[in-house]
Each structure stands twice: as structure tokens, then as C-alpha cells.
Amino acid sequence: MTAARLPRRATFAALVALAARAATGQPAPAAAPQDGGPIPMPAPRYQVRMEPSVMVPMRDGVRLSTDLYFPVGVEGRLPVVLLRTPYNKNANRRPGSIPNMFAGQGYAVAVQDVRGKFESEGDYLISAADVADGYDATTWAATQPWSNGKVGTIGCSYLGDVQVMQARARNPHLAAMIPAAAGSSIPYRYFGVVEGGAYELLGGFNWFRGFGSKVYLRFPPGTPDSVAARARQYFNPAPTVPAVDMRAMLATLPTIDAMRRAGAPPTDFEATLSHEPADPWWARLNYLQPTDTFDTPSLQVNSWHDFGVAETLYQFNLMRTNAATARGRDNQFIIVSPTAHCQSERASAHTVVGEREMGDARFDYWGTYLKWFDHWLKGVDNGVTQMPKVQLYVMGKNVWRGEDVWPLARTRYTDYYLSSGGRANSRLGDGALSPAPARAARADTFVYDPRHPVPTVGGPVCCTVTPDAAEGSYDQSGVEARDDVLVYTTPPLAAGVEVTGPVKVVLSVSSDTKDTDFTAKLVDVYPDGRAFNVQEGILRARYREGWDRKAWMEPGKVYELTIDLHATSNYFAPGHRIRLDVSSSNFPRFDRNLNTGGRNYDEREGRPARNAVHHSTVYRSRLVLPVIPPAP
Q: Tens digits of per-residue pLDDT, 560-609?
């Protein structure tokens, strides 16, 4: 048996190769390979031929380069699987790729470079063209002489987001979709680079530097397609990005100079960094709105250590609530694994996420994807729609479970109150979590110095190439030894506690500066002292009253902040302890608040802030957990 470990950091090439993930047909995995490795793709039924770089026109005349894959020897019109990517469609021209898998099962497959990327024409602005272009590409694929008129979409991360965004347009040919890790399509998360009003620096900088170029090698206007097709085999249209010291780049002040300093080509990094959450600039990117309607059967997939898992769950509910017909409402499904971004299919019999063992987290994803499209695109009655609407992996118990709704109907939201003798600093302090509110009025204070921020250790991050900032669950004991981290912990649990659902932290805070950040991290403390991160979040204090206004703090005045810790499913076993870490930085995952009340992104100097968390019968700072009662 092999003990497969999900890698400490996924390279960009690996992320591209993982572009499409989703769910199993039952809450237990199907036939697992004998060696305990990931459940493989089904064996091909047909050989595959490819037509490279077909130029597909959009409504405005811009043409998008598209590879077409066909099963050899299959007669008649075929259902179409469509992938739209910013990562170079040519990367899929290899055995074992998703296009080859579906073509080998009797589908026509179209893989398209999105507008302005690689071989496609037009100008690139993240997400801006994906609703209209996705609609047009779907219509084109459905109306070709080799198509049966039904199109399904699939893909992970950006390839998932384009599906979710297109779905709001309700193209009648879009019969089904499988968006995975598609958590970047809603307002105030904006491409996954905005969190609680702070900027996701680690993921944002790395993504834009590696994948965000707005410039590519282009053939002269008027070059015949036949000439361009022959020439492309000799050229890579993407720019070469120089190697740099990533730690130094991420530490750059002002932050807005980091990409230029790294020698990267033009990207949208500076634009996303410099526009505030309510700035009208974001509207041009066409992210989802609460009033959007949908009607596409959807099999969504994500994982508990992905930055957008709560957003995916939100989309699952939005597509049910705002469905145009019963078909759309009744055919929304979601699977949530324990892994990191776009790694669900890599789970093995001995899954390890970061450093934490997660048991056998396998599902027959590929078999389920095939059944999903066979049903919706080929009309096969295979029972795939009888699976549970929600299938999730309960970490700690290390089991899959099927549910009907999210959040779970039996959830009991339970408050765990913060208390201490005034010295909760570090795990060696006296911070406690208890179902009873603190009686004495106390405050725990710490100094947050942006020159020495609390380091990121694991977490629900994406696209990292920094060795000490990997995805997943890691022992937080080193971070918790710092004096600028407040640590609140329950006694060892006499009985296990399952936490499944949305998590939040409500803090009564004060500061000696007009603006600062507050971070929170939910931690599972094992009996041997290892402390594994479960979920985390941040709030820039100026946005505590809403994204469309700035509310400055008065020195010494106490304010209530609510920090979104998104969602999780974790069983705190008997003998374990529930812990909450509170601080004012988590760097380089989030950009540093320089504590000046300024714009942060264009500032060179910061100042230390003396911050405090208050707890008493008046100031009821608390962790709110979605507790699931034990089964009778």
C-alpha cells in the first residue's frame, strides 16, 4: 500500500494539469485501485484525434483559439464537453488529460484559450469577457455539424469560475456543468484576491506573476490561419518570467511595486490591489449578483482547504434558490473533500493534507463525472441524480457523508466565549474557551508590528510557490509561541464535537490606531500538543460596518467585529481541544495593514499598533461554531 501525500506546494504546472474535479455517485468510493492510490480515470473506449487551433468567432468578431478532440470511429452527432482556460490549451495535448479522457469515452471535446490569452485574439482583463464568450463558445459548439446540440462544461479553479459566470446567461445549449474550486465569482471576493477587505497577497501575486500576463506573441494582422497553424509549433506565445526571491518580492513596500520589481509582464495585479471593495471598477468583471438566475444542472466540487469553499457552498444554494425551473432547482449537487485547491481527485487510501492525516478520502470522481455527462448530454438513465445533494468529508472522523441541504438542518450554533486573566498571549498564556461568558472584565493586549508580521503556516491558500507558505493543515505551535498571537483553548474534550457548517468569530476590540486588521484561526489541538489549522479569516477594521464605507477607530474605544471563518467539517475527537488564535496579521497570505489609516498598497512605512481583545459580561467575544449533535 502506498501512503500518498498531497504535496506541500502545488506547482503551477500541476495546478494546470488538475483542471477539473467533482463528485462521486454514492457516499462511499467505488472500486479503489489495489495499491491504495487515487482512483484513476476510466480506460478509453476509443482512440482520439485532434484538430488544433480552430479559430472560433465571438459576437464582436474576436476569434478564440480552440483545440477539438474527437473519438475515432464514432458515427453521428456527438455531445460536446467544453473547457475554457487561461493556462494554455496546448497543455492538454497529452495522454491522460481531461479532453483525451472524455473524447476516449465518445464525446467531442473543445478546449479554448480565453480571450487575450496565448493563441486567442483580443485583450485580456480577468473574468471580464467570460460571460459573453462562454455563451458564444457554447452556442458555436452546439451548432456544429458534428454536435448533437448539448454542451457540458468542466474544469477547476479559473476553469470552474468561467462556468459559474456563464451559467447566469442561461444558454439553452448548456445542458450540465462540473465547476470545481470555483470560489472566485462572487462580489467582495473578486477573483479570490479580496478577503475581509484585505488583499490575498500570496495567492494573488503568485497567480498574476505566473498566469496573468496581458501580452503575448502575436502574428502580424492578416496572417492566414494555415500559416499561423504551421508556425505555432515553433513558438511559445507566453512571456518568460524571470526567477526571483519570492520572499523578498512579497515583502516589497510599497506593495504595488512588487510585480514591477519582480520583472513580470503587464498584469491586472496593480488594478485588483488598488481598488477598494465597493469601487465601481469591479463591476466590469461581471461577477455573480444575488439576483442572478440559473437553470443548468450543476455538480460543484471543492475542498475544505481551498480558499473559496464557502463561496462554492453559497453558489450551490444560490443556484437552487434562484433557479428558473424545477429542472435547475432540483439538480444542484456538491461534493467537498478535505484536500487543498484542485486536489480532490488526488486523494488516496492514506491522504495527508499538509501534515495532517485524513484517512481514506477517495471518491470515484472521474466515474461520476462521466455518469453526470452521460445522463445530461447522452440521455443515459444511470441514477446519477439519486446521489445525495451534498456529500462532504468529515475531517477527524475521516468519513464521507451525504446530506440534503447546506447548512445542515440539525445544526446547533454554539457560542464558545473567550476569557483569560489578561494574559492570553501565546499558547503558554492563560486564554480559555468556554460555553459560559467571562465574568470579570478583562482585555488581552498585544503589539502588532507590520515589520514583523505573524507568518502564514498552511491554510486555505492557492497557487503558492513559496516553500514556507504551503497549502493545507500544519502544526501551528511555532506561530502560537509568539507574544502577538492570542490563544484561547478549551480543556480536553470529554466527548467529541463535530463542527460542520459556517464558522464565525465575534470580537470586541480596541486599538491605539485608526485602522488595523484582526485575524482569527480555528485550530484542532491533538493530545500530543500538535495544533492543526482548520479554518481562518481576516477583517480590516475600517470595513466593519460594510464594504461601501470606511469606519475609523478612535483610540481606546471598543468596537465589535465579526470575522468570517468561512466553512468547515471537522470532528474534534475526545481528548482533543478546540482552539482559537487571534492576531492582526497572517503574512504573506494577506497584505499587511500598515496601521496608518492610509491606502496600504502605496505606502512605504507603517507603525506598530497596540491592539486589544475584550471579554466580559458586556463584551462577549466569542467563537460561533455550527455543532452537529451526535447521531442517536
A: 999 999 999 999 999 999 999 999 999 999 999 999 999 999 999 999 99
Residue 152 host element (H or E): strand 147-156
Beta-strand pair 298-305/174-180: parallel
Among 217, 346, 188, residue whose Cα is nearest residue 276: 188
Please indicate whether residue 306 is annotated as part of the active site.
Answer: yes
Annotated catalytic residue 65: no
**Which of these is catalytic: 157, 337, 420, 585?**
157
Catalytic choice (67, 120, 298, 341): 341
What phi and psi, each to the nearest 5 degrees, are found at residue 205? -60, -45
Secondary structure letter of residue 181 according to DSSP = S
**DSSP codes joined into one string, 30-81:** -S--TTS-PPPPPPPSS-EEEEEEEEEE-TTS-EEEEEEEEETT--S-EEEE
Omega of the bond leading into 437 within 30 degrees of 0 (cis): no
pLDDT in tens, 127-147: 999 999 999 999 999 999 999
Active site residue 279: no
d(CA 92, CA 182): 20
Report the alpha-carbon distance of residue 311 to residue 287 in Å, rounded: 12
